[in-house]
UniProtKB/TrEMBL annotation:
<feature type="transmembrane region" description="Helical">
    <location>
        <begin position="113"/>
        <end position="129"/>
    </location>
</feature>
<dbReference type="InterPro" id="IPR017452">
    <property type="entry name" value="GPCR_Rhodpsn_7TM"/>
</dbReference>
<keyword id="KW-0812">Transmembrane</keyword>
<dbReference type="GO" id="GO:0045202">
    <property type="term" value="C:synapse"/>
</dbReference>
<feature type="transmembrane region" description="Helical">
    <location>
        <begin position="155"/>
        <end position="173"/>
    </location>
</feature>
<keyword id="KW-1003">Cell membrane</keyword>
<dbReference type="Pfam" id="PF00001">
    <property type="entry name" value="7tm_1"/>
</dbReference>
<keyword id="KW-0807">Transducer</keyword>
<feature type="domain" description="G-protein coupled receptors family 1 profile">
    <location>
        <begin position="13"/>
        <end position="272"/>
    </location>
</feature>
<dbReference type="GO" id="GO:0007268">
    <property type="term" value="P:chemical synaptic transmission"/>
</dbReference>
<keyword id="KW-0472">Membrane</keyword>
<dbReference type="InterPro" id="IPR000276">
    <property type="entry name" value="GPCR_Rhodpsn"/>
</dbReference>
<dbReference type="GO" id="GO:0005886">
    <property type="term" value="C:plasma membrane"/>
</dbReference>
<protein>
    <submittedName>
        <fullName>Trace amine-associated receptor 7d</fullName>
    </submittedName>
</protein>
<keyword id="KW-1133">Transmembrane helix</keyword>
<feature type="transmembrane region" description="Helical">
    <location>
        <begin position="220"/>
        <end position="242"/>
    </location>
</feature>
<dbReference type="GO" id="GO:0004993">
    <property type="term" value="F:G protein-coupled serotonin receptor activity"/>
</dbReference>
Amino acid sequence: MFLGLIIIGIIGGNMLVMLAWIFHPPVRKPQNLYLLSMAVADFAIGVILAPTLMQELRSDDWPFSTGWCQAYLFIIGTLTSVSFIHVAAIALDRYHIVFDTTTYMQRHTFSYFLQRIAFIWILSMWIGLPDVVEMPETENFLSLTGQCVTPLKNGYRIFLALGNYLLPTIIILKTYRDIYQKLKDVDIQFNSDKKQEASMIKENDDEVIPLKRQRRALHMLAIIILAACVSWLPFTVVYAVLGYTDWSGKLLTMRTCLAIGFSNSAMNPVIYAR
């Protein structure tokens, strides 16, 4: 039931984001390509991954073919990385708006963002490569246990979990802290002279995003960060320690945590609509 509601939320919410891009011209701004790209990844999670996970949770053994198991694991690694890394990219984009406004406005083009989106997707596919390399072992493990899991070495599993979650999280949190401190300093400076504040905003209206919009963007970024980090933390922890534990329900726990992670794909469109 929980996962079914998540699937509906993922598909419905992200479809609205994609339709808004197609039919609502004001949305078609270069920086919003990040939101469109993430919506595509989240939509694919709702259409491909979440329904497969639902069937997997209903069955004791893997209910699909060996080929789909191998593809499924690679797609999980790719799409979840795309979604999470986009959060870091959006945070860095906010950072450049606040700290490097003049240069940012000069490179504020579709090609600039498309290049970075291409890099995110390529990097995410590289993160999913271990599932491709280990396909023979995955097939053997599936035939022996009936479970669709990549039998990676424990150390490499920790490296992957931390690299895919901890590193982006550190970047995101540091970026948010710097932006928050910068806007706080600007508020203190401008509040000391209201006339100066009004004058500066008016004079630079075409070049600098007004402070209220910056604060609103910062609040939205904080919610995005909180939602992403909290949603994916349980899966990251369970995935990292999977090989070091032997409790009977560890695979069920991992799949449940994966469903919680997928819920972030349903939250994103709601957050951006604020």
